[in-house]
């Protein structure tokens, strides 16, 4: 399955995204929120996978305000350095605004409801998407720095699912406990913990990829999206 690049118009910024549609041509929508490597093959593969499951998926270029068209991997030291430099320059609130614009662009292409699913940096952005946009359901995989924005949780109005890696090298045990303790009693929030997994356990070909854990998380995500976006 192959998608296409489309334009996304925000209130103060225009950018592009990778769009993948199901064979039916339409369905519920999902915004696929990138890691620190841009809209790369991994993100396009996620969008294509969601399209194969009946969703209209759109992955926006959230680094476009810094450098449009970032498409790198996790396979070399130089790419990791560039990825961390981009993350350091990235404005999270601008990212949320661009996700809101992406949802607005995607919704007319769908059967009505639009959710969001993000990884790493995108996991934090998925949390903030649940807090500050009209996403109908949001999912974050091993989100970084969520503990720094927990005050925003009071604005959650629609379901949120978080996948937390117990041995996450970028989210220490204290941060994980803070996130869980602050969100566990919110009826809109579902938290799944993977005690033996490290960061990016669901990224194929990544150093910490674990197929069994990834399959379990992805099955939970699909069920969550189908329940809340139907």
TrEMBL record:
A Pfam family per the record: DLH
InterPro entries found in the cross-reference section: AB_hydrolase_fold (IPR029058), Dienelactn_hydro (IPR002925), Dienelactone_hydrolase-like (IPR051049)
Residue intervals of the Dienelactone hydrolase domain: 15-227
Keyword tags: Hydrolase
A GO molecular function held by the record: hydrolase activity
Source taxon at top rank: Bacteria
SUPFAM superfamilies per the UniProt record, alphabetical: alpha/beta-Hydrolases
Protein name: Dienelactone hydrolase family protein
